[in-house]
């Protein structure tokens, strides 16, 4: 059975995005980029909700991304990707397919039949839905040393308590801390 991990970055006060879906507060460079590069080498299928997909697609296939973060851009562009959306019918980014309908049932099917491990990037509402359904095997949470006044919490909409076991920590020179958990 495939393993499903959720990766997200959050503020110290638990927001994964600010008002109007702003993530400009996130530190992505240096060691954090190297961590992304190594993670992408695992070959996991990347999973997004529509909004996160649109944000990622607007940057990673661009010449600017290739110049700023060459290895991460290569990894993002070559990775197999799935977008969960009830409104999107077709994805323009190469190696991407769209899945609509009952995404929880679709994820159950994918975990049983896919064979490859999968990683959710961003996509808070999908994280909450899959966590409630017991489909997420682990979380990687990158905490940025910043607090913002309002935004969307990572586990907003969660209906059940999640009991997590800390399996690893990493502190970056920027002050970002990566926490790894198993469910």
What report would you give on this structure?
It is a single chain. This protein is of the alpha/beta class and 183 residues long. The protein has one domain: Dihydrofolate Reductase, subunit A. Helix content is 31%, strand content 26%. It has helices at 30-40, 50-59, 63-68, 70-78, 103-113, 124-132, and strands at residues 4-10, 15-17, 45-49, 81-84, 96-99, 118-121, 138-143, 152-153, 165-171, 177-182. The strands form two sheets. An eight-stranded mixed β-sheet has the order 5-4-3-6-1-7-10-9. Helix 1 (30-40) runs parallel beside helix 4. The longest helix is centred in the N-terminal third of the chain and has 11 residues, at 30-40. The chain is globular, with a radius of gyration of 16 Å.
